Amino acid sequence: SALRDETSAAVRHLRNNDCNSIICSTDSQTFQYLVAAARDIDWDVPIAGTSISDSTPQQLNEHEEIRGAVSGSYPRAEYSTQVLPYFRNRDWPGVNLYHQLMAKWNPEVPAGSLADYDPRLSSSGLEGTINTRVIVAGLRLAGPEISRARFDQSLASLAELDLGINAAVSFADGDRQGLEQIYYTSIAGNSWEALEGIVSALSS
Questions:
Q1: With contact defined as beta carbons under 8 Å apart, do 24 and 31 qualify?
Q2: Distance between first and last Cα of the chain
Q3: pLDDT by residue (tens digit) across 97-133?
Q4: Partner of 94 for a Cys bridge, out of 149, 164, 191, 198, CB 3.0 to 4.6 A?
Q5: Could you tell me the CA-to-CA distances from 179 to 102, 142, 146, 171 in Å, in that order?
Q6: Tell me: the pLDDT tens digits for 47-96?
Q7: What pLDDT is recorded for position 198?
Q8: Burial of 201 by CB count in 10 Å (0-12 exposed, 13-18 middle, 19+ buried)?
Q9: 161: which residues sit within 8 A by CB, 6+ positions away?
Q10: What count of Cα atoms within 13 Å lies in the side-chain half-sphere of residue 25?
Q11: Distance, CA of 94 to CA of 100 (rounded, Å)
Q12: What is the 3-state secondary structure (H, E, C) of the chain?
């Protein structure tokens, strides 16, 4: 395919110019092709992406089968930045609460739903839970006489909201970012796992 040819050419160019790591911000499919192209030429350069580039080890293994590569050669030395902690790390109180809520309510896919929704534990599920908790905090500040303007003002006044993820949520003083913290993960076995920091991982 055109994408396969383009990523292969990009990888060859980077290797020929003595690149010692790759950091990319792209969609997951392009990320998978880039990883495959590097590993196909036995280039074990560390490759880092962002949360929008996330590819599961299973997806990378599927690429191995399609391209006839050695099993386990693709999902290695891959790293990713995340906007929230790793969803399986229950040492974070906010993540542990997410697990408790999922166990308590055991959500199922709504009958007749056409949405691509998986009720199992996931990064997107944790993100949805954190978003919901922020909205609830805004609603409580707004009080019973709710309106769009009042709710917006309440959210804008949130400062140092502790959700148990080692970083406070704040929209005060015109800051619409909410969270400034970045979390790091790497592929280990058949899943992503938390890293203390991408710098130490890339230098190991």
A1: yes
A2: 34
A3: 999 999 999 888 777 776 666 677 888 789 899 999 9
A4: 164
A5: 23, 21, 25, 9
A6: 998 877 766 777 777 777 777 777 777 777 888 888 888 888 888 999 99
A7: 46
A8: middle
A9: 134, 137, 168, 169, 170
A10: 2
A11: 10
A12: CHHHHHHHHHHHHHHHCCCCCEECCCCHHHHHHHHHHHHHCCCCCCEEECHHHCCCHHHHHHHHHHHCCCCCCCCCCEEEEECCCCCCCCCCHHHHHHHHHHHHHCCCCCCCCCCCCCCCCCHHHHHHHHHHHHHHHHHHHHCCCCCHHHHHHHHHCCCCECCCCCCCEECHHHCCCECCCCEEEEEECCEEEEECCHHHHHHC
* Structural tokens at position 147: 């309106």
Reading the block at residue 39, the tokens are 């590993």
List, in order, residues 6 or more apart from 35 with CB less than 8 Å away.
47, 55, 60, 63, 74, 78
Q: 183-188 and 78-82 as β-strands: parallel, antiparallel, unpaired?
A: antiparallel
**Tokens 């003595």 -> residue:** 18
Amino acid present at 34 = L
pTM: 0.71
